[in-house]
Automatic annotation (TrEMBL):
CDD domains: M14_ASTE_ASPA-like (cd06251). Residues 1-27 form the signal peptide. Residues 107-285 form the Succinylglutamate desuccinylase/Aspartoacylase catalytic domain. This is Succinylglutamate desuccinylase/Aspartoacylase catalytic domain-containing protein. Keywords: Hydrolase, Metal-binding, Signal, Zinc. The lineage of its organism: Bacteria, Pseudomonadati, Pseudomonadota, Gammaproteobacteria, Lysobacterales. SUPFAM superfamilies: Zn-dependent exopeptidases.
Length: 433
C-alpha cells in the first residue's frame, strides 16, 4: 500500500513538473494578455477605486549638500560665521571681514547681502547684520551669505575710501596683480561673489547727502528687471552704473545685482534700516526662499487661493526717472522739503543764503516729482547738486528709455579715483554708489 501511495505521489510531482516546464503562462491564474473580447475594452481607464502605483511613490526630494566656502563646509539647516581676509597679506594687520553663511535645510538660490564697501556707510552694516542673524536656517529654502563690512580699512577709520584714497567700488572684479583696491576687489569677487545667484549691495548717500530707500538697477538686463520687481513697493531707479562697481561686475558675469540705497553716511537711521530690512524680507518671499507668515496663516483659515490674493495683493515697485537740481550760487543751503516728499513744478525746494551780502536765492523744482535724495544743510558752492528729484514712470517706459542710446554727453557717477584728490561732483541724474 505504501508503494502505491509513493508511486501516486511521484506521479503527481511529475505532472506538476510538466506543467511548469510548459511555460510561465500555464502557471498564471490570470493570463498577461487576456483573450479577445474578455476584460475591459482597450483604452479604458481602471476603476476610480483602483489606485495607480505612482500614487504610492513620493517624488524624490532634491538633496541639499553642504556649501564649501572660505575653506569651510556649511551643512544644511545651520548658520556659521566665517572670516574673510584677502590673500597675499593685503590686510594681515586688519580685522577680518565677518561672513555670516546661513545654509537652508531646503534647496533654493544663494542670496548675497553685501555692505560696507564704503567704510562710512553704516546703515548697510546694520541692515546686513540684522538680516543675516534673523533668518531661520531650518525654514530657509536656499542660502543667505551676509557680509556686513567689506572695506574694513575704511570702516575702522570712519572713511569712505581705502588707505590710498581709492574707492573700492570702482575696481570690481579686480585683478590679482593691480593696486591694493584691485587686489581686494578680485579676492572678494573670487571668494564670495562667485557663490552668489543674486546680489544686493547696500549703500547710502555720500558727502553729506541722504537717499530715500531705493533700488538702483540696470534695466537693460531682463534678469535684473525681474530681480528688481521683488522688492515690494520700493522705488526702482534705472542706473547703468559705472565700470568697476560691484553690481556692474556681478551682472556682467550673469549674477543679477542691484544697489540698495538707504539714508545718509556716518549715522544709523532706524526708519531707513527698517524699510530696507522689510524690502529684503519681501525679496526672499518672492524668490521662494521663505514663506510669508501672513499668507501661511491665512491659508489655514481661507482655503481659496483667490481670496488670499485679494486680501494680500503683492505691492508693486515704483519706477522712477531722475535728475539733480543744483544750486546756482554759493552760500548756506537751507532745505524747505523733506526726503520722500512729493513736490510740484515751480515749488521751492530750498534757499541759498549769502552770509556776506545777506541775499537769499531760491532753488525751485523744474518738474513735479518726489525727493529721492538731498544734501544736508551746509555751506555749498555754485553748481552744487542739492536735490535729487525723481519723476514717476511705468516699468515699460523705464525699460524703453533704458534701452535707448545714451546722449552725446554720457552720464558719469564718478570720475577716475586716480585723478581726483577730493570728492567728485555729481552728474545729471546720477549719484554716488
Amino acid at each position: 500500500m505504501r508503494r502505491l501511495r509513493g508511486g501516486m505521489n511521484r506521479a503527481r510531482l511529475l505532472l506538476l513538473s510538466a506543467l511548469f516546464a510548459a511555460g510561465p503562462l500555464a502557471a498564471q491564474d490570470f493570463p498577461v494578455d487576456p483573450p479577445a473580447g474578455a476584460g475591459p475594452a482597450a483604452g479604458t481607464t481602471p476603476p476610480e477605486t483602483l489606485a495607480s502605483p505612482q500614487e504610492f511613490l513620493s517624488p524624490l526630494a532634491e538633496l541639499v549638500t553642504p556649501l564649501a566656502i572660505l575653506d569651510r563646509l556649511v551643512v544644511p539647516g545651520t548658520r556659521m560665521q566665517l572670516e574673510w581676509r584677502p590673500g597675499g597679506g593685503i590686510s594681515a594687520n586688519e580685522i577680518p571681514s565677518p561672513v555670516v553663511v546661513t545654509r537652508g535645510a531646503k534647496p533654493g538660490p544663494v542670496l548675497c547681502l553685501v555692505a560696507g564697501v564704503h567704510g562710512d556707510e553704516i546703515n548697510g552694516v546694520e541692515i546686513v547684520r540684522r538680516l543675516s542673524h534673523s533668518v531661520d536656517p531650518t525654514r530657509l529654502s536656499g542660502t543667505v551669505i551676509g557680509v556686513p563690512i567689506v572695506n574694513v580699512h575704511g570702516y575702522s577709520r570712519g572713511t569712505r575710501y581705502l588707505p590710498d584714497r581709492r574707492d573700492l567700488n570702482r575696481f570690481f572684479p579686480g585683478t590679482r596683480n593691480g593696486s591694493i583696491a584691485s587686489r581686494i576687489a578680485n579676492a572678494f569677487f573670487q571668494d564670495i561673489v562667485s557663490h552668489c545667484d543674486m546680489l544686493v549691495d547696500f549703500h547710502t548717500g555720500s558727502f553729506d547727502r541722504s537717499n530715500l530707500p531705493q533700488v538702483r538697477a540696470d534695466l537693460t538686463h531682463p534678469d535684473v528687471i525681474e530681480f528688481s520687481r521683488s522688492f515690494g513697493n520700493t522705488v526702482v531707479l534705472h542706473s547703468p552704473g559705472n565700470k568697476g562697481m560691484l553690481r556692474v561686475a556681478a551682472t556682467a558675469v550673469g549674477i543679477p545685482a542691484v544697489t540698495f540705497e538707504a539714508g545718509a553716511p556716518t549715522r544709523l537711521e532706524p526708519t531707513e534700516i527698517a524699510q530696507a530690512v522689510a524690502a529684503i524680507e519681501r525679496l526672499m518671499q518672492q524668490s521662494g526662499m521663505r514663506e510669508d507668515p501672513e499668507a501661511a496663516e491665512d491659508a489655514a483659515l481661507v482655503p481659496d487661493p483667490a481670496a488670499i490674493g485679494v486680501a494680500h495683493p503683492e505691492p508693486a515697485p515704483i519706477f522712477l526717472d531722475s535728475r539733480w537740481v543744483r544750486a546756482n550760487s554759493g552760500g548756506l543751503l537751507i532745505s524747505d522739503v523733506t526726503l520722500g516728499q512729493r513736490v510740484q513744478s515751480g515749488q521751492r525746494l530750498g534757499r541759498v543764503i549769502d552770509p556776506l551780502s545777506n541775499v537769499e536765492r531760491y532753488i525751485l523744482a523744474p518738474v513735479a516729482g518726489r525727493i529721492i535724495g538731498m544734501a544736508q544743510n551746509q555751506a555749498v558752492l555754485p553748481g552744487y547738486a542739492a536735490f535729487h528729484l525723481g519723476t514717476e514712470t511705468s516699468e515699460q517706459q523705464a525699460v524703453r528709455e533704458a534701452a535707448e542710446p545714451h546722449s552725446p554727453d554720457p552720464v558719469a557717477e564718478d570720475p577716475d579715483p586716480e585723478e581726483r584728490p577730493e570728492a567728485p561732483e555729481l552728474s545729471e541724474g546720477e549719484d554716488y554708489e
